[in-house]
Amino acid sequence: MAEKRPPRAMGPGNEEFWQGCARGELLIQKCGNCGHRPWPVVQTCEQCGSDKLAFEKVSGNGKLASWCTFERPYYGDLMPVPYDTILVELDEGPWFISNPSGFANTDAELGMPVKVTFLDCEDSHGEFRLPVFERA
Amino acid sequence: MSDAGMTPMPPSLREYSRRASIVGVGETDYHKDYQAERKRAEGYEPPTVDDLCKLAFDRAMADAGLKPGDIDALAMHYTFGGPDPDEMASYLGITPEKAWVNGHIFAGPLPNIVGRIMSGEVKTVAMIFGIGNRSAGRQFGGNTYGAGMAGPSSYYYFHPWGWSSQAAHWAMMAQRYFAKFGKREEDLGHVPMVVRQHASTNDNAIMQKPFTIDEYMASRYIVRPLHLYDICLVNDGAVCLIVTAADRARDMVKVPVDVAGWSESYITQDKFKVMVDERLRPQIQSAGNEALAMAGLSLDDIGQFEGYDVASIHLVNQLEGFGFTPDGTGIDFCIDGQMTLGGRIPTNIAGGNMSDNYMQGWGQVPEIVRQLRGEAGSRQIAGLNASLSAMTQTDCVHPVIYTRGD
Predict the structure, then answer these.
(1) Residue pair A74/A64 in contact by the 8 Å Cβ criterion
(2) Number of structural domains in chain A
(3) Does B268 touch chain A (CB under 8 A)?
(4) Domain hosting residue A128, numbered range
């Protein structure tokens, strides 16, 4: 049963990211000029300005860098409060906003190893798989 | 590159220091207006942006001792729109040679006006910021902005994870800070508590009633670990600054407050890492040092700091970032009394964004002017000669240094 979520950002680059998620792959752009890995999706490299950007699968492994819990309902019934969000430092560099899976923020520890998993979801654009993180 | 919305400013050159001065300030009735809006008595009508701007202007003109004919330029600043500048001029009863919209938040407009005065384009300028965000029901999170408007580094991008609010940035920073430096919520609570004590001396501050750490801990969370008291206010109001050339300012009734230094610095990449891990330290340091060099001052010369306390933790970031206290010690610095009168650097001494008013950076300037003139009454900082304001957002910092001009 797909979980209902607020809408994804779509448009150039984003479709490719979400198609990767549908296959169970976490894709992050890599700059063909300077090697920088920007996140979220950009049209030109935030480090060197090049448009030679290509999506590459990353390991999905990272460390817990921070976390916070929403106590104020910004999305009404769509995201009933309280709910946990986390910030993951991916092994490849980018810092990734997500949700915890199989653990709660009350158990979170700085630097805790985590790995990506995908949650079946649905938004106004249709069904999709959302990258979330569980203990590694 | 940035969602900061900076008004273009001249470079931070030594020869541009102290070329123009603030000679008048005016603010609206933050406390009274906020109470009225909360109460919403029968027949209540929120003040319009026009009326707020006019009140701030009239007060600034009276403060400066100027007549309508003395103003040759009107620079309007609106974050969520406002009257056409020419119509505003006629509503204010002035006939400036030039009237235009010069930006919105306090990110660059003052150096911009100093530059225009230096070039001779304008002489004596009324700068007005007006905002009606509370009565418009604006909230800084959720679906206020659709995902279709998402920029690459904005919070609107993260809707599917439910991560969407301005406050969540500060919550992520605070949580990492706690874990890294061994601090707790009840430690951080001292920062808004001290700022509230400051506001208790300010009868125009929206929130004046002091609270205890127990009351802080019992207050509701906005985004855990941050409580209601950790987050800035949202209110309607206006600020007017009258600015003229430094030599003309010497002939006016009040002690001129010179614009002595400024700078700006942005996060250009890896926003979440720089924001949550480095807490904008590289940006705050480089901009701070450049502004100080422009003013010909060192940090020790600064006797008042008006930081952008959109959240308690972000005030800590700025105290540490500018170098008032080492990395990781900002909360202890506050607990130790170092950011209040008699401490190392009186900070947000009239109540800041968390207790006085939230005028998107403009609200910091009137208290700096009052303090540098020696008009701050029971909260006056003795022997003050130089003050620092900082508009510090999630991805940029804009410090301005002011000095007493007599």
Answers:
(1) no
(2) 1
(3) yes
(4) 3-135
